[in-house]
Amino acid sequence: MRCHRELARDIAVSAHTQALIVGAGPAGFSAAVNAARQGAETLLIEQAGALGGVATTGLMSHWTGSTRGGFYEEILARSKDCESRQIINPERLKTVLLEMLEESGASLRLHTLACEPIMQGNTISGVISESKSGREAFLADIVVDASGDGDIAARAGVPHHKGRERDGGMQPMSLMFKVGGVDTDRAVLPGGFEDTYELPAGDLQTLGREHLPHPAGHVLLYRSSIPGVVTCNMTNCTGVDGTSADDLTRAELMCRRQLDPIVQFLSEYVPGFENCYLLTTASTIGVRETRHFEGEYTLTEDDILEARVFDDWAVPGAHFNFDVHNLAGSGLDETGLQKGFPQHECYTIPYRCFVPKKVENLLLAGRNISGTHLAHSNFRVMPICANMGQAVGIAAALCAKERITPRQLDVTKLQGVLRAQGVEP
Questions:
Q1: What is the β-pairing status of strands 160-162 and 134-145?
Q2: What is the model's pLDDT at position 83?
Q3: 341: closest CA among 81, 76, 65?
Q4: Among 64, 97, 90, which Cα is nearest to 281's?
Q5: In whole angstroms, what is the distance from residue 320 CA to residue 226 CA?
Q6: pTM: predicted TM-score of the whole model, two decimal places
Q7: Are 158 and 359 a contacting pair, CB within 8 Å?
Q8: Distance of CA 24 to the CA centre of its chain
């Protein structure tokens, strides 16, 4: 490989803050608001031009699952835009999240990519960023990596693996989109892989597998908050790695090539969609799975199935299924469990899952926390990630105030703050 040697240079320190949050998806946004509410000087860095991550720029249709309590409930209450509080209006949500962040007193830097950790031995003390403003240094007492892929944690040296344990396979990527012109009074709207309808031409999900371009093939359609508009989760790209720019490019191109055939399929086969048309597409492709980091504890599928309540709980009230999209094609993976998911009780996530091995003053939040491939398919959904951010943001503020590392935090102090906010296991 040919190499170019980059010359050493001084980088301006643009800020020194107590809590630095990388990534403004549901986990990172929630961490920033909650750290600031605890009185910590907080800065949130986001590479996109809006808050919310997959919930907004990713054009997600709804808040998934049946998680109860926590900061997630406040987000729902503030952003509700129609009868169903779980349906997302991305444009309203962008504004509501910005209002909540500003009210908290946290600072914000958009259009800024955090690309390298600043390390002193095994301790992180900030990040290097790239933006239109050039290369900058942001120093911090505590750094929270809520970037989804854990780019900062990986480059800081936290042990990790990608995808499922046996072969590194990762869930596929999807580009969400909306169609207009739908007669929603007549429309059929399958919301899960196991939902289908018998139509004049045959079974809907079977028709999708037969007529849509591989690896697309499933039919997932969701109401929006706008009359005549439906959100579609039907594009699909398998065998791609969200930490590779080449793979991200390939996934964008493949999913966009599937859009016209999908819209044609909907208009030809699905009642209510006869006059539908492509309205808008997400500006961010949905990456479901990449790195799994090693923390002080690794959450397992058995923990979820047993609805474990950990002594060092940080996120209670979590509930979803094993939402594993087929790693080789369309539909549900053979390891996934949706309607047949046997566990109806909420589980907890221990604080140890957010504390990575080998690196100090770093916390994880969101889908990159310490968990197995199968457990990850449950906790990766946005409501659970939002409540992760609540706990991690409070923890970051406590650590900054006490001048201790996250590994040294007395978790009962975190639980005390959560309990004062009405969060109980």
A1: unpaired
A2: 86
A3: 65
A4: 90
A5: 27
A6: 0.97
A7: yes
A8: 10
